Amino acid sequence: MLKQTFIHLPRVGYETERRLWREGLRHWQQALDTSAPPAGFSQVRWDDVRRHLDDSHRSLKRRDHRYFAAALSPRDHWRAYPDFASRVAYVDIETTGMGSWSQVTVVGLYDGKTMHTYVAGENLKDFGEDIQAYSLLVTFNGASFDLPFLRRLFHDFPPDVLHIDLRYALKRLNLSGGLKSIEQRLGMSRDDDLAGLGGFDAVLLWQAHCQGDAHALDTLCRYNAADVENLATLLDYAYPRLWEQAGGDALPEGGPR
Question: Is the pTM of this model over 0.90?
Fold first, then answer.
């Protein structure tokens, strides 16, 4: 949880964070209340840490996601999940191919309660406005694929949003491979007619839709929705395990939310 995180501070790495935790400074407020420097810190450096923690406290109170998106390394954006869970968007796109020349055909956005689907030629432009309401994006391989496409398509796509790419977060938990294979390893299932579909099938479904197949678009949108909604399940799986791996306190019963 963010209030137990210190690695966003200048010159504080993972081992220094663990050392602070071992010395009983497991929460921002405990550090703010401690004027004497802990082992390994000069008074000047400790005063600087406390000034940054005060900034962090005020930024979190304002729910200023931009502050934490800049202060945290991208690999650690997952730590912001509980504090920004009310403004999270799980996002996945479908395209006409894998190359940079490809076009976006469908974008799925799930806010944890409602699934929103945007289709090229129908309402795709609405995504550019709707995404502005969110502070934290969750994708699978989005850093390399989804977000570059979306930033080219929507010039006002938020540049300073928090982003959890589950491909890399899950890899740190020894879960490598594609989204579908990871789902299978964790016992997650899909509707029978979607279970065998992959990215190339999504391309073919769009082509079939363009050629007049009355059912292809519905199947494509349901396939995309399954991708997006399963990201929420995967993040709820990953978060407590990443926190345990980092050495943080046990999470409350019921998980990070």
Answer: yes
